[in-house]
Design goal:
Elements (H helix, E strand, L loop, with lengths): L6 H5 L15 E2 L11 H10 L13 H11 L6 E4 L1 H13 L6 E4 L6 H8 L3 E4 L18 E5 L11 H10 L5 E4 L20 E6 L12 E5 L1 H11 L9 H12 L1 H24 L2 E3 L6 E6 L4 H10 L2 E2 L12 E5 L3 H14 L1
Parallel strand pairs: 1-11, 3-4, 3-5, 5-6, 6-7
Antiparallel strand pairs: 2-8, 7-8, 9-10, 10-12
Helix pairs in contact: 2-8, 3-8, 4-5, 4-7
The chain binds pyridoxal-5'-phosphate.
The site of pyridoxal-5'-phosphate has 13 residues, from α4.
């Protein structure tokens, strides 16, 4: 606390990211990073970028990157917005498209950054409880609102929502923007990108941090109608002209172009996830259905917080959420390599 702080700062409760411990031999399954490195083409592109041209500013509009993202999804570059990680893209989305006189709606159990943006930008919001089985029921969102946002698959549950349900929601909710945060969509969830040309109120956000193995490069993007993209650009150009530096642009373009590598690593993560679900089920865990690169699971008898602490003693880090109480018994496990799964399962055998 300081008398020099603005009122806004006094009222903030910042988001707390998963920890990045600096320990050797850690089995790090806590922040949903990809266990595989980025495509070798990304590394080659980054090396080329380490050149004299770094004295020049990057392209403020990131045209080449937008073009390569547009090509990937058969969209037009004016339907693409890029930012420094999808967290920055989301921050602009909240300010540009979700701040209205009616409350923004999102699930009670979801990405915990959403309420943080609301407090930063003074956005009124209302949380909608997930159903008993932790699924999103779109009928619950059938009420006046200033916007709707949720991840698909949801976080931290990992549960995917069918595209038919999202389309129903878009049809009903034409007076405000529906944002689908598809940070984890490439691990087996249907994407809503195919609906963008039909619904001008749909915005989809993606990140290169997960399926493209580039959490360290900080690139995310939004896809939607040109009017929605223009709103984001207006905010961005009132905030930071150059959120995508030369390395981020070169690396992200190479990642978007290497479809074969992307598909192979996503398939491998999905395969490891399915094997891990079987093992955990045998150990007495109840695992929620996952369309993500993580799973949310609780043990029949062992408490979640206790398991997390015990695993930590064995240098295995997974994530636990104390609140709300409905999820306190669960642990969230990022899918790593098969070797990391084996270490986790062996440790759990010892503990249970
Ligand atoms: C649901 C969801 N959306 C967005 C993000 C942000 O990802 P990034 O800022 O790395 O693009 C995360 C990160 O964990 C997430 O879980």
């Amino acid at each position: 606390m300081s008398k020099y702080w603005s009122d806004v700062v006094h009222k903030l409760t910042p988001y707390v990211p998963g920890e990045q411990p600096k320990l050797d031999n850690l089995v790090k399954l806590n922040t949903n990073e990809n266990p595989y490195g980025p495509s070798p083409r990304v590394i080659a592109a980054l090396k080329l970028e380490a050149a004299d041209t770094l004295r020049l500013y990057p392209d403020p509009n990131s045209d080449a990157l937008k073009e390569s993202i547009a090509n990937t999804y058969k969209l037009n570059a004016i339907q693409v917005f890029v930012g420094n990680g999808s967290d920055e893209v989301l921050a602009h989305v909240f300010q540009a498209l979700l701040k209205h006189s009616r409350p923004l709606l999102f699930p009670d159990i979801t990405y915990s950054f959403y309420p943080v943006y609301c407090s930063l930008y003074d956005i009124e919001y209302q949380t909608i409880p997930l159903a008993e089985d932790f699924t999103i029921n779109i009928d619950d969102y059938d009420q006046p609102n200033g916007g709707i946002i949720f991840p698909n698959p949801n976080a931290p549950t990992g549960i995917p929502l069918a595209l038919t349900e999202i389309e129903k929601l878009l049809k009903k909710n034409t007076q405000s923007v529906v944002v689908i945060d598809e940070a984890y969509v490439d691990f087996g969830t249907e994407s809503a990108v195919s609906l963008i040309n039909t619904y001008p109120n749909l915005l989809v956000t993606h990140t290169l941090s997960k399926a493209r193995s580039l959490a360290g490069l900080r690139v995310g993007y939004a896809l939607g109608s040109p009017a929605l993209i223009e709103a984001l650009t207006r905010v961005k150009d009132s905030f930071n002209s150059y959120p995508i530096d030369r390395f981020a642009s070169a690396g992200a373009i190479a990642a978007m172009q290497d479809t074969a590598y992307f598909e192979a690593t996503c398939s491998k993560v999905i395969e490891t996830r399915e094997a891990l679900v079987k093992e955990l089920t045998n150990l007495g865990f109840e695992v929620l259905p996952s369309g993500a690169n993580f799973i949310f699971a609780k043990h029949k008898v062992k408490d979640g917080a206790e398991l997390v602490a015990k695993l930590r003693e064995k240098s295995i880090i997974v994530r636990h959420f104390k609140s709300p109480s409905r999820i306190a018994s669960y642990i969230r496990i990022t899918i790593g390599t098969d070797e990391q799964s084996k270490l986790l399962i062996n440790a759990l055998y010892g503990l249970l």
